[in-house]
Amino acid sequence: MRKNNYLLVAMASIVLSVSLMLGGCGGPDAAELIEQDISKTFDTLVVKEGDAYEAMKTSFVEDFGEVPGVDPSTLYTSLLDGFNYSVDGVQVDDETGTAVAKMTIKIKSMSDIFTTWLTDLSSVDTSTFDGMSEDEMATYSGELLMTAVSSVQPKEATIEIHYVLNKEGGWELAEDENLEGFAQAMLGDLGSVSVVPEEDAE
Q: Per the domain annotation, does 201 fall within a domain?
């Protein structure tokens, strides 16, 4: 796996876990129930404890796999360090059976992490790698990634999550709701980062 794909795997795993946690809800006050459903999931990422959090971390570790110099469990915790959110309102349309939750989240962006990582890699004196094996260099690079993730500060972003009323009268994620806003907040401007470490160039 190319090193610049690691962060995309990490992002995808977190987004999928959040999507699976948003299980849906039912009852008379749609806006309140949807907000409770969202809070139940995102509170898990804020508090960072409990069975649900451990299950999400385990899934992340399995998805991420083995990368030299990177401890996936520590990486997961570091990626979510400083995470926070607020539900700014839920708009319910009873006629169409749809609802939109507007949120503000605070999370580290992959673009900031990747840019910091590349900068740190390019700043290393080449003599540092003298006598290193390929495995040792890969481990060194992974350790720099961990440092980059730890040093980057979270940023605020506004997102929306879409719900629909199901046949049973409960609210659930819309069929085409893939948490694109949440994913984009994590992604940042990663697509615009075009510089790749020389050892990764094809």
A: no
Residues 6+ apart with CB under 8 A from 58: none
Q: Which two tokens stand for residue 111?
A: 């673009």
Whether the predicted pLDDT of 104 surpasses 60:
yes
The helix (H) or strand (E) run that includes residue 183 is helix 180-187
pTM of the model: 0.81
In a domain, residue 199? The reply is no
β strands within the chain, DSSP E: 25-26, 84-93, 98-107, 155-165, 170-173
- DSSP codes of every residue in 90-116: EEEETTTTEEEEEEEEEE--HHHHHHH
* Single-letter amino acid, residue 182: F
Number of structural domains in the chain: 1
Q: In the Cβ-directed half-sphere of 137, how many Cα atoms lie within 13 Å?
A: 17
* Number of residues assigned to the chain: 202
**Mean pLDDT of the chain, nearest integer:** 86
Structural domain containing residue 94: 3-193
Query: What's the rounded Cα separation, in Å, for the pair 192 and 202?
Result: 18
